[in-house]
Amino acid sequence: MNISDGKKFDAIVIGAGAGGGIAAKELSCAGLKTLLIERGDWPDYEDSTNDEFINQRSHIIRALHGPDRRKSPRAMHTKDGWKPVPAHIQDYSVVAACVGSGTVTYGAMAWRFMPQDFRLKSTYGEFAGSSIADWPISYDDLEPFYEKAEWEIGVSGNQRDNPFAPPRKKDFPMPPFEHNDEDVFLMKTCRRLGLHPYPIPMLRNSVPYNGRSACIRNRTCCGYVCPVDAKNGTQNTVIPKALKSGNCTIRTNCTASEIVMQGGRAKGVRYFDSDKILQYAEADIIVASMGACETARLFWNSKSGRFPDGIGNQNDQLGRHLQSHAYTGAYGLFDEDIVSLKGPGATFAISDFNHNPRENIIGGVLCSEFYRLPYALSQLRPPNSPRWGGGTQKIPARKHAQNSATTRPHTGNPNARRTRNSRAYRTRLLGAARLSYSWTVSPSRLEASGFSLVESRNDFEGSRRKNHLAYPWQRKSPRQGSRTTSSRNLPHGRRPKNFRHRPFLQSLGNGKSVCCRRFAARHQRRF
Amino acid sequence: MPTRRDFVKDTALISAGVAVAGCVNTVAKNRFPPDERECVIAMCEQIIPRDEFAGATDAGVVNYVENWVFKYFPEMRKIYAEGTQAVMRSSAQIYGAKFQNLTFVKQREFMELLESGAISKSTWDSDVNQSGFFNEIRVRSMQGFYGSPRHGGNKNLVSYSMMGWDTPLVIGQNRYNGALKRRESDATKGSI
After folding, report:
1. Crossing angle of helices B34-47/B77-95, nearest 10°?
2. For A14-51, how does the pLDDT look when each residue is reduced to its tens digit (9 = 90+)?
3. Three-state DSSP class for A219?
4. CA distance B83 to chain A (A)
5. CA torsion A495→A348→A107→A229, rounded to 10°?
6. Subunit contact A379:B148, Cβ cutoff 8 A
7. ipTM of the complex
8. 3-class secondary-structure state, position A88
9. Which residues of chain A make contact with B49, given a CB cutoff of 8 A?
């Protein structure tokens, strides 16, 4: 092992993604000699082929920016025990392995938390089996930093039409994007329903900003590298600034294997360099920003007398409470063309249900969806439509320009994904994260996902009842509950007799959903 | 003394021979054996049959499946080899002919049995899961039909044109795999 860097650095940042890039910039611009370690390489649009199967969003063949499935093993808990999980399938939870990481290829929505998000436990109470908690800081503490990030990295948008927006002192640096045809249509309907649509704050340049050009409305945006560099990530904003300061050294293709501890303090980092030779560097400050799974894996691998089960794992909480990227969504098909071929979509959102018990529904932000590419669209089928055989081509062929979608991340179940009884086991010296979680979503949440809401009122402008389809969509989620009829099962334009609109609030840890009225009765004082 | 004409003729013949030999090797290495290939083609055509729109065979879906198996995920080779053999074997037992030689209606019947895992264990006689294998073929057919032609399927952009999807999308200039890298390496070699 080379003790190459001795005490050369004041700080080491492991992982050059969303958090690590910003940390490296702040440290190096404050005059600290900083080493930034990244397991991947610099991203390059030349590697991108606008391929629906090779990108970071639908990595059917491989994820464009890694990680390589052979080099980064992970295991998943199944009914047959622990099984290796290949990186190209959804359960692997791919996070891009390149400078900038997910910020290179993300959909680039720039949400602020709302003040109430910091007080979830004190507002809604504790649920057995959940990880719900209050933050030790408040929105007011974070507000100046939100503003700094928005201006430094670059966000387009305005919150004038959002009466539920958290307070802000300064507007976004760039004007919002114009709405695409599909969203103009949906927004009109939202307004008629008394909802408040507003443009999504986007980390994309609506006008030239920071010396880079404006967005060209590419369809392959979310999951892809921007061909004109109009998407703002850490790789084209803060990391170049860090490097320009002269205090930051970036080492790409280097994978951290262990944080070396001395007593209770982190002393240095062992990592494999691009030639797979083990190196060692020391610093006073060490920032681990490798993403949820890999940070936990590194901490498990970093054992010392003080931390025999890994750094910070005295209470066996390391790697637990993993939050997933699970979304709830709804798709609709219309009689007329509402989709233009311009990308990337996702231009409006509503926050009417964020901490606002409107009609007994409380949920997260609801957004229009990004442009659906051909294979993704071919997989969206209305109920009763064949999965295979004659007629499968009809929907994609006839409805390509007439489909619409809304989705939202559901934050209801903090235990949606977690590592449980997990220990990194050592393979190839680095260890592999082992995951165990479920994608369970309760039907009541599905009903809160927009289309079912408007469908139940038979009020979706322009969609004739007989041809109108609305069905929530979920990933890998079995249907639960016997009393509620999921609107996924709605036949064409007809509401089943026993259809009842169950309000969305929160899912209990055991997978049962609780209806808001019952919940309110149970926690009257809190409401 | 050989004339110029003889020389050209001989060279052409030798090149042709080399080309054919090269082709044969490639085919043998990256293709299903003929029987298996026909079976996969027939199964894919069942998933996306030609009707008013183009079908899986028109889109060359089998080329995508072969790329999937031989190029991208070689670990799937065993499943395809065993799965197709089991399909042909059990089809022969139930209908008296290999799957690819059945009529379209009989093939459909067989696929329905396969989907629901209803073929008896003794007939199927394989470790490959029936509905799992059906699903594998279903998903690959869809991907081969709707995915990028880069991976072997979607011949002549049949699905894109069916959907009215304008492609390839031109953004300033179209980019191709490694085009710039090639240009750069040419430039460093001084050939440009």
Report:
1. 80
2. 999 999 999 999 999 999 999 999 999 999 888 887 88
3. coil
4. 19
5. 150
6. no
7. 0.77
8. coil
9. 389-390
